Amino acid sequence: MKFSANLGFLWADRPLPEAIRAAKAAGFDAVECHWPYQESLPDIKAALDETQLPLLGLNTRRGDATKGEMGLSALPDRQGEARDAIDEALDWGAALGACNVHVMAGFAEGEEAEACFLENLRYAARQAASKDMTILIEPLNVYDAPGYFLSTTAQAAEIINQLNLPNVKLMFDCYHVQLSEGDICNRLSRLMRLIGHIQFAGVPARGRPDQGEINYDYIFSHIASLGYSTPLGAEYKPMGHTEDTLGWLVRRQ
Ligand SMILES: O=C(O)[C@H](O)C(=O)CO
Ligand SMILES: [Mg+2]
User: Fold this and answer.
1) Annotated Gene Ontology MF terms (predicted)?
2) Is 119 in the active site?
3) Through-space distance between the first and last CA atoms of the chain, rounded to whole angstroms
4) Ligand 1 mean position to 53 CA, how many Å?
């Protein structure tokens, strides 16, 4: 099993280039990030080149983070901004050699929001295809993100099936799935052909994966048995020094 350090949470107190080097030193096989846009792209690229860690993905901008926005792509009155955010994420991703962009839907509901999300995803998939990249969509749990447009894997699967585009896939975050839906292993089996990336964290605190109600050794074995070998994204809040939380990784090396 291979692992990707999600630098939105791990070593989040460091600039991304330093966080990338820390992930390499700790033995991760890949990295991924949330919103790198305030940092220096050439410095991030230099750290990726130096460490030879692949960048698995990044997110589209949230919108106005001070207002708690979490994406724009399902907001019918924000289509221009949403597409700028998609273009920006794809440009950064292509420059950094990333394979995935997570297109964030935002807080919205109803048919108009769904039509808007579908249209923006078609746009994103077209742009991504020309860069050989994949678009991910991710349901967020109803406790952390109440009112977020996508909250279940069933809803995400319906959208992905409706679009029927080879480069639109599901980001299956075991933490969100456990909180909103449960039944993680059966869902992984059923949805495997739609999955583009898998993330994990302890539940319910979103801390290190070896603490909490989920037995990740079991889940990782199940994922391996399904033939999935892409690095799994460690997207948890270390609540202290990241190095102090890596026993779960060290035990697997
Ligand atoms: O929070 C998550 O699970 C995400 O993966 C994300 O990208 C930002 O919300
Ligand atoms: Mg996630």
Assistant:
1) hydroxypyruvate isomerase activity
2) no
3) 9
4) 21
